[in-house]
């Protein structure tokens, strides 16, 4: 998890400041009212190479990665600019909370996380800013795209019918995408198909998949060597599931045509999976102090810590929740959230709940909604197979549609952006 996160944010982020430019630094690309510096570009190239080496891919010439890396930097800069204009911010305190959670999930303290980053040859302060950018862009995507994605009960029924047909098989996939833009002409689509078919011929002749993905793919996992990881057949788009459903490990599907371009898929492994039958539910209660127009984040934090001190001194949790909590759904019930399966809460809240035993209470912590104090009351095991199937189906369909919307939205943002390249021969 640590490696994947660091690779993802390091390859995508561009956080340099013009004020910090050294005399030998220079501007490579102007993106709207911002720039991408040569130093950022070289750092991103270094990280891309390190990422590929970690995956056992060390035969990709540096000059073949340049276009991929620069495009990633451009796309990230466009998104962070739009987030800035939309007023999306992540302050240092929230960033520290996120980094602490990342470190804890990997069995480290924040200080140990920082040392690990430095051992890997990265600038810790730069990585902090890269993580901040990733959080900001995730929130931007949610704000701008969430309303465009809906999942009906009929969608869930259709998904479950497909799942019944393909069973619980999982496949480990590698992927290359040759993208085509909205409104591409027949000649442009034909050219893209020809490129995809040529790449597939190279792969069939023994070319390394990860190397070709890193240098040619337009997919989000290009700089991870095209690795999609293990996916349930039922979770794949139907066109993909049909193409790879009967393939053995090592086999490639014929080039797949889709609206956004042409796909090459290779099955690297197959295995069966077992549906989860039991779920651990948690009953918890919480107090939420929410920043608003009249309450700054610092004031909300101060109030949360004051309430935590009152609880330490014996105050009744339910009474404080009824009097002070800003969560309208639980405050009247003394903060009681009822029985909840895992994954129902936002990530920061769920992580706190998962770390607590029944009867334990957290220190104040922040989520996207504000400052919380949570107390776990009890846990139980329950058979929730049918509910989980429907819940998972809804989540998979939503994520799939969100990704489709994201790719369309990102292409539109790029088309609308002002981009001026100032590359030289040694760039």
Provide tags for this entry.
427 residues, alpha+beta, Triger factor/SurA peptide-binding fold, Chitinase A, domain 3, 3 domains, four-stranded antiparallel beta sheet, 14 helices, 49% helix, disordered N terminus
Notes on the structure:
The protein has 14 helices and eleven strands. It is of the alpha+beta class. The protein folds into three domains: 146 residues, Triger factor/SurA peptide-binding fold (Orthogonal Bundle), CATH 1.10.4030.10; 105 residues, Chitinase A, domain 3 (Roll); 105 residues, Chitinase A, domain 3, CATH 3.10.50. The radius of gyration is 24 Å and the shape is globular.
Would you summarize the structure shown here?
The protein contains 14 helices and eleven strands. The protein has 427 residues and is α+β, with helices and mostly antiparallel strands.
Total domains: 3
Distance between the termini: 32 Å
- Poorly predicted segments: 1-23
Structural class assignment: alpha+beta
- Number of helices, where a helix is a run of at least 4 consecutive DSSP H or I residues: 14
Q: Give, in spatial order, the strands making up the sheet with the most strands.
A: 4-3-6-5
Radius of gyration: 24 Å
CATH topology of the largest domain: Triger factor/SurA peptide-binding fold
Largest sheet: 4 strands, antiparallel
